[in-house]
Design a protein that fits this description.
Shape of chain B: elongated
Number of helices of chain A: 10
Distance between the termini of chain A: 55 Å
Oligomer: heterodimer
Order of helices and strands of chain A: HHHHHHHHHH
Largest sheet of chain B: 3 strands, antiparallel
Helix content of chain B: 40-55%
Structural class of chain A: mainly alpha
Shape of chain A: globular
CATH topology of the largest domain in chain A: Rna Polymerase Sigma Factor, Chain: A
CATH architecture of the largest domain in chain A: Orthogonal Bundle
Number of strands of chain A: 0
Low-confidence stretches of chain A: 1-11, 92-97, 99-106
Strand content of chain A: under 5%
Number of helices of chain B: 6
Distance between the termini of chain B: 62 Å
């Protein structure tokens, strides 16, 4: 048992050359997945549950002989679908996103700068609320570093549709925020 | 409106075909409007990411970090081990009560020991130090303790099948060489 290292060492070895890299994959993706789910409106507790389930699903799928091409897109897709299945909580926070947390970003600067930053965040928060669900999801996944093709896999959209949606959403934000 | 404007965001994201991307880059040198727009899109993308990076992802009912848990557990394991007079192989693996017998022994010891407590204690330590460089080399884990996940986390915080293993290696003189705690998952 002492030689096993990380619990997911075996199945992840299809993506990673060693158990160490398998552990790195878990650590690299855990926080982005949590952030995505919380941004979708899940509570931190729900998000933790969903992420754990997603990793266990991947583990099960791999030990059963499945071989997802791309573990990152696969995990985001499973997590996304689980979040959508919790529709009630999905919409609970959707109307009142992260304004209080976002204000903390203003820390460590002059009062004038802090006020300016606060105003920018307020504008940005208002602009984000004008986005459609799919526009917001595309931007969230893009912010976590997913390629358009991967975003398409997560949301079940064609890559060209993702490109159009991202383009529209960024322009909307830029126009409303005037940053 | 400039014809390149609809390619700017895909260009920022590195999603354009290489030759089209080169076209856009050439164009950005000569078009101030597109250049300014590209900067604006980059800035708003950065702001969007920063806005959501502040998302509160920590579990509310379990504010302790993994590092805290690991450190706390390591300290507990080291203490238990130090107090442990019996051969460690006899520890019942996978039992949540594994840690308790030695703790009880520690609690009752002062009562049962006769008057010169200090002297007895010194003898115990001296004896312990006399143990000859035993069978283990010190490089291999000397002791392996299985800890059910429920013993260190709130019930339900860790999916079923998870448990933790502590590998402890000691030097010949009984001082700890390393302690390693790692999660392990058991599948049927």
């Amino acid at each position: 048992m002492s030689g096993d290292g990380f619990p997911f060492a075996f199945p992840f070895s299809r993506f990673a050359a060693s158990a160490h890299e398998g552990a790195t994959l878990f650590e690299d993706l855990r926080t982005p997945l949590l952030r995505y789910l919380v941004s979708l409106g899940l509570s931190a507790d729900e998000a933790q549950d969903v992420v754990q389930d997603a990793f266990l699903s991947l583990h099960r799928s791999l030990t059963a002989g499945g071989s997802p091409e791309n573990a990152r897109a696969w995990l985001f897709r499973v997590a996304h679908n689980a979040a959508r299945n919790r529709q009630r909580s999905y919409h609970r926070r959707f109307g009142a996103p992260l304004e209080t947390e976002a204000l903390d970003l203003a820390d460590g600067s002059t009062p004038e700068h802090a006020v300016l930053q606060k105003e920018k965040n307020r504008k940005l928060g208002a602009a984000i609320r004008t986005l459609s669900d799919v526009e917001r999801e595309c931007l969230l996944l893009r912010a976590e570093g997913l390629r358009y093709r991967e975003i398409g896999e997560v949301l079940g959209l064609a890559t060209s549709t993702v490109a159009g949606t991202v383009d529209r959403a960024v322009k909307k934000l830029a126009e409303k925020c005037n940053v | 409106m400039c014809e390149y404007e609809n390619n700017l965001i895909a260009w920022i994201d590195g999603e354009l075909e290489p030759d089209i991307a080169l076209d856009v880059e050439d164009h950005l040198w000569i078009c101030a409007s597109c250049s300014a727009k590209a900067d604006q899109y980059k800035e708003v993308s950065r702001a969007f990411a920063a806005y959501h990076a502040a998302a509160p992802i920590r579990k509310s009912s379990f504010p302790m970090g993994w590092a805290t848990v690991a450190a706390g557990f390591a300290a507990a394991a080291a203490l238990i081990l130090w107090m442990l007079p019996l051969p460690v192989e006899q520890l019942p693996l996978h039992s949540p009560k594994a840690a308790e017998p030695p703790a009880m022994a520690f609690a009752t010891q002062p009562v049962s020991v006769p008057a010169p407590v200090k002297k007895v204690h010194h003898q115990t330590i001296a004896k312990r130090n006399e143990i000859p460089p035993a069978a283990w080399t010190g490089l291999e884990p000397s002791i392996e303790i299985a800890i059910p996940a429920d013993a260190i986390f709130a019930p339900g915080a860790v999916p079923p099948g998870f448990t933790f293993t502590a590998d402890l290696s000691m030097n010949g003189d009984g001082s700890p060489r390393f302690l390693r705690v790692q999660p392990t998952v058991y599948l049927k």
